[in-house]
Specification:
Length: 209
Amino acid sequence: MDADGVEVVVPRRMALRHVEPFVAEKKPWIERTLRRYEAAKREAPAIALRHGGIVPYLGDVLELDVRVEPGRTRPHVARRGGRLTVKVAREGTAAIGDALERWYRRQARAEIEPRLDAATKRAGTRWTRLSIRNQRTRWASCSQDGAMSFNWRLLLAPAEILDYVVEHEVAHLEVLDHSDRFWRLLGSRCPGYREHERWLRRNGHTLAL
């Protein structure tokens, strides 16, 4: 098995006409194995807050270019391709982490708002307000009046995880609880939601600077 698909190796004496039925019979096992293989590749990468270290961003990995500039009054963070330049006044992971959190919070609004617009348009609903927070136990919430709250740390996860959480909260605009009706509605819009839930349970504790 490689990154491009599945390689089938059979005994020399096996007739080629038997290969296709054999693969068809094993298709459920192959698909389960491929899903596990892809999930393993999508584990959250280790974060390193230092020059040359890395941070994740919606499935991408950004290399940190940290520049210490004593006397700087406020941190500055800018992305160019796969590199994130971080300018801070003092050395240390605390200063880098604070600068990055400010940047991720700004990016979270820019990433989430269009996703919310698209999801509510598809659902025929509407949201009213969007806030970006740093909850320790919740990834997002939706109030009865359509106010949405999302955790900026979702940007440390792959993009499909953020997309799932957006769909989850948009479904709450129609069904506020977690009844069977809610899960059926969510499943119709996000068929892979169970895998995304499992990913968050497995990796959620790592999504922090």
